[in-house]
Write a structure and sequence with these properties.
The complex is a heterodimer of chains A (413) and B (477). Chain A has 413 residues and is of the alpha/beta class. Chain A has 14 helices and nine strands. Chain A has a domain of 146 residues: Peroxisomal Thiolase, Chain A, domain 1 (3-Layer(aba) Sandwich). Chain A is 34% helix and 17% strand. In chain A, a hairpin with a 4-residue loop joins strand 8 and strand 9. Chain A is globular and about 55 Å long. With 477 residues, chain B is an alpha/beta fold. Chain B has two domains: 214 residues, NAD(P)-binding Rossmann-like Domain (Rossmann fold); 208 residues, Orthogonal Bundle (N-(1-d-carboxylethyl)-l-norvaline Dehydrogenase, domain 2). Chain B starts with a helix and ends in a 13-residue tail after the last helix. The chains are: A alpha/beta (413), B alpha/beta (477).
Chain lengths: 413, 477
């Protein structure tokens, strides 16, 4: 959908994505909780926009605090960020790992509806409260519960392992594994450039070969993915302000310091239906193509993409859905270096879900923060060059197995 | 007796070729008993002890897994956890619950398949909880030894005291309804002696787990002169199902593990006594502990290991082994004195290390016991002085934890020993002597027919003691 009036995002903030890999992570010690993450991300944004007085509405994106942290009624945490948000409109949205994207979609709609000139969007998840084997139960809520019994112990890795298996059978395993390993290596190399990334401390001199040589083991994990093909368990939050033109004026920020939302699409696929083709992400294909078509551009016009690589195979299938590679050629597209930070179209420039981290309900917001940083020259060591003839950035956020999809196309304001 | 054995051999052969002939002779029923049937009623003696609790855990899990097999659905499995202490049994159940959870969490992929027909169990946590209940529900904690009379298998993990073992095992044998098989966890007493003294008629095998049994992969299996093939075969299947590495040892006191460790420790003590004339006892003990950890690239120094096993336990094992050894006196007056002074090492029920030769803080040695003045002396107060006397470590030195799990372990060790061999410092000389002695002990275990070959000796030291290299190696020059 093309917004009928200008909508911008500004003032992005990410906490550290905390979990295994970070030197300071200690699973046995008392760690930061839901409150800390929401507060840090929320205040991180408020500081850049002149405080809570400038905010009309708030929205929180979160997936499963009700189980990970026994916490619901999340809008009540908005005034905890700053008492200036007390007695203001606040809501929370849930669409599994697509909750962050849904928070942005919700915020954009309110700005367009005119109920808000500035909406504070925060996405978070604190999921190291459970060991992975129990966390898998909780995350399985992103699928249809009726399928849980027949699903894998590690439910979502199991779903995407089946997709990888189908891809191997159709297009050849060896090539695919090379592409997936390159995907992992790119993620690690990019995350080393962002101090908030979960893999920031990763020093492996040869991540490509580490991944390539790690044969998937179905007895301990899943048949067609190894641990490195998967995003890790993360605690983290991200926040950003969604503003109208009026809103930007209110906080005294030039349009050129913000990113403009050019096109936004949200699409859902029936959660009770199995994917028609395991080697295709149907809903992502629909939503990304709709966003591009409405704007009259193709994926090749994008400078960079933040896409939902909860698993390496999901990243490769998304490239194919975008039309950047033919079906079955996504792995070659990656192997050839096209998606590396120096390639034709740098993807997930701060590591994505595999490298930066995947605090599930926060991921969609994190993606928009990264695009804002890249398009406005704020990405620090992770900064890539934005070609003047290809000024666009895209986010693709997915909830469940290709079920709840948010796509936004931005350019610098 | 001969006739019986002939029948047993015959019946085994029949069984092996899958013949369905049923023998109705009562005594032969035992030989036809399937693996899982035999494991339907088991007793662990000393179940709340350090070794017993681990054996109990592994056996309970094995029995629970068998009970989940479709063909065993209607069978009842009972595991008696017998110990003399009610208090310890109370703690045991807590330990079991915690450990079974860890095991279940690691094999949830498999458990989901085993519970596929249970529609009420959907999420991992439900399946894991159900599995924990199943395992714990097999275990019957008790202080009454009579429960063992109905068991087919008795695991014995009581005190390393030959007379006590004779009494307990023969008591069960006499009163049993089942003609049971005995598995003894003795680390030092010859099995034939237990067999004959308790009149077990060959229904015994040495099945020596390493501490802690739930973690350590090694099991030494020792046959008595009379141990039947059936019992041995069962023991091997059981070990395989527990995913243990089996090293058969011949039935000579101490077997391979303690055969090396006790002599190695005694050599350490002798080296301390020698070095003490120049260094003083405390500094000498520090020096030898350091040599055996750093210069020999072992997980811990020899005195830390002695503390870990327990000083009194080591004293006892030596006393048990000593009468069986020719031309050797396995005894140390320093161990006697430590025990007299009440400084015994070993572990608290929490698993934390008790003080012994060394004093520990958060698991790290911080002081040395001064046996003359009966107090601990802080290592910090003299370490630099002793380290200087020993000289620098070889340039290529890397600690055990780096070396042992390294893909290039071989290359790291080769470089280290090349350096060490070329050095003439006091530290290097003591280390080379120590390694030479360890090597002699290894070879002695083969020449005295305790171990079959180099590999058996090395496997025990690599897996049971976590050494980075075996005593019989090419690093020594």
């Amino acid at each position: 959908m093309i917004p009928h009036k200008k909508v911008y995002m500004y003032g992005g903030y990410n906490t550290i994505s905390m979990g295994t890999g970070r030197k300071e992570f200690n699973p046995k010690a008392v760690r930061s909780g839901v409150e800390d993450y929401i507060k840090e991300a929320g205040q991180g944004v408020l500081k850049q926009i002149g405080g809570a007085k400038n905010v009309d509405e708030g929205v929180i994106g979160n997936f499963m605090a009700a189980r990970f942290n026994n916490q619901a009624n999340l809008p009540g945490f908005l005034p905890m960020i700053d008492e200036g948000l007390s007695m203001k409109y606040g809501t929370s949205v849930e669409g599994a790992c697509g909750s962050g994207g849904l928070a942005l979609q919700s915020g954009i709609r309110n700005v367009l509806a005119g109920t808000s000139e500035i909406t504070l969007a925060v996405g978070f998840e604190v999921q190291n409260t459970y060991k992975a084997i129990y966390g898998a139960d909780i995350l399985a809520g992103a699928g249809w519960y009726q399928k849980r019994k027949t699903g894998h112990a590690y439910f979502f890795p199991g779903q995407f392992s089946d997709r990888a298996g189908a891809y191997f059978a159709k297009y050849g395993k060896e090539n695919a594994r090379k592409g997936m390993s390159r995907w992992y290596a790119n993620a690690i190399e990019n995350s080393r450039l962002d101090p908030t990334a979960q893999e920031y401390h990763n020093t492996n001199p040869d991540p490509y070969n580490t991944c390539l040589k790690m044969e998937p083991n179905g007895k301990a994990f899943v048949d067609n993915l190894n641990y490195l093909d998967c995003s890790k368990v993360s605690d983290g939050a991200s926040g950003i302000a969604i503003c109208s033109e009026e809103g930007l004026k209110r906080i005294g920020v030039a349009k050129s310091e913000a990113v403009e939302v050019l096109s936004f699409v949200h699409a859902v696929r029936d959660i009770t239906k199995d994917p028609k083709d395991l080697t295709e992400l149907e809903a992502i294909k629909f939503a990304t193509n709709k966003a591009l078509n409405e704007l009259g551009i193709t994926a090749k016009d994008l400078a960079t993409i933040e896409l939902h690589d909860c698993f390496s195979i999901a990243g490769i299938l998304t490239l194919e859905a975008l039309g950047l590679a033919e079906k079955g050629k996504g792995c070659d597209f990656v192997s050839e270096g096209n998606t590396a930070r120096t390639g034709f179209i740098p993807v997930n420039t701060t590591g994505g879900l595999i490298g930066w981290g995947h605090p599930t309900g926060g991921t969609g917001v994190h993606q928009s923060v990264t695009i804002w940083q890249q398009l406005t020259g704020r990405a620090g060591n992770a900064q890539i060059k934005i070609p003047s003839d290809r000024p666009y950035g895209m986010t693709v956020n997915m909830g469940g197995d290709d079920v709840t999809i948010s796509v936004i196309i931005f350019k610098r304001g | 007796m001969k006739l019986l054995k002939a029948w047993q051999r015959f019946s085994r052969n029949v069984n092996q070729i899958g013949n369905k002939i049923k023998f109705n002779i009562n005594i032969l029923k035992i030989d036809f008993m399937k693996y899982e049937d035999r494991l339907q009623n088991v007793t662990v003696l000393g179940a709340a002890g350090k070794m017993g609790s681990g054996i109990l855990l592994l056996t309970a899990v094995e029995m629970a897994d068998l009970s989940l097999q479709p063909q065993n659905k209607n069978k009842t499995f009972v595991l008696n956890a017998m110990d003399v202490s009610d208090e310890a049994l109370f703690g045991l159940m807590g330990y079991l619950r915690e450990q079974v959870r860890k095991i279940a969490e690691k094999k949830t992929v498999l458990l989901r398949q085993l519970y596929a027909d249970r529609e009420d169990l959907i999420e991992n946590f439900q399946i894991i909880d159900e599995y924990i209940f199943r395992v714990l529900n097999i275990v019957r904690p008790t202080t009454a030894v009579e429960v063992a009379y109905r068991s087919n298998i008795i695991f014995e993990a009581i005190k390393e005291d030959p007379a006590l073992k004779h009494k307990v095992l023969s008591g069960i044998k006499k009163n049993s309804e089942k003609n049971p098989w005995f598995f003894t966890n003795t680390s030092s007493i010859p099995i034939t002696e237990l067999d004959e003294a308790a009149e077990l008629g060959g229904n015994i095998i040495g099945f020596h787990f390493y501490n802690p049994p739930a973690v350590q992969k090694l099991v030494e299996v020792i046959r008595s002169k009379h141990t039947s093939d059936d019992l041995f075969d069962f023991a091997m299947t059981y070990a395989k199902n527990l995913r243990k590495i089996v090293v058969p040892s011949n039935d000579i006191a101490g077997f391979i593990g303690n055969g090396h460790f006790m002599r190695d420790a005694l050599y350490g003590i002798q080296q301390v006594e020698k070095l003490a004339t120049e260094f003083g006892y405390v500094k000498a003990l520090y020096a030898i502990n350091k040599i055996t950890q750093d210069y020999l690239v072992r997980p811990m120094g020899i005195f830390q290991l002695t503390d870990y096993v327990g000083i009194e336990v080591c004293q006892y094992i030596m006393a048990v082994m000593n009468p069986y050894l020719k031309d050797e006196n396995l005894h140390s007056s320093i161990l006697d004195k430590m025990v007299e002074q009440g400084v015994k090492g070993g572990q608290y029920s929490s698993g934390a290390q008790k003080d012994g030769f060394l004093k520990y803080e958060k698991g790290r040695p911080i002081a040395i016991w001064d046996i003359d003045n009966k107090k601990y002396i802080n290592i910090d107060s003299f370490a630099a002085e002793v380290d200087a006397k020993l000289g620098v470590l070889p340039a290529s030195y890397k600690p055990w934890k780096v070396v042992n799990f390294n893909r290039n372990k071989e290359a790291l060790l080769t470089a280290f020993f090349e350096d060490l061999n070329s050095m003439k410092t006091l530290g290097a000389t003591l280390a080379k002597d120590y390694n030479k002695r360890s090597n002699e002990i290894g070879l002695q275990l083969i020449s005295s027919n305790v171990a079959k070959d180099n590999e058996a000796v090395n496997t025990v030291m690599l897996t049971g003691f976590y050494h980075a290299y075996g005593p019989i190696n090419n690093y020594l020059k």
